[in-house]
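Researcher: Go.
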Amino acid sequence: MSNEQNPEAIVNMVSLHLRELIHDVNNALFVAKGFLEELNEDTQGKRYMDPSFDHENFQDMVSKINRNIEKIDTNLVKLRKFAKEDIFDKTGVPRPS
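Model: Structure:
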């Protein structure tokens, strides 16, 4: 960290980074939740038993849910790392012992 950075600049940098990670997690949750609601309707009504049911689309939704869960997991790892390590490196504040 440069000695020229003031506390306001540091807080703004940390806030921006946290908001970006939270935004990514929120988007992934929104997509996964939407697909899970749709899958729930299909399974509750047993629509998947209907021969005209779009099984390929069903599989695509399951794949998208899995990808979004992975995005959530990845971003939570990034948030954890940022909170435990990066915040100290980026701000120059000594790590607690």
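Model: The longest helix spans residues 7-44.
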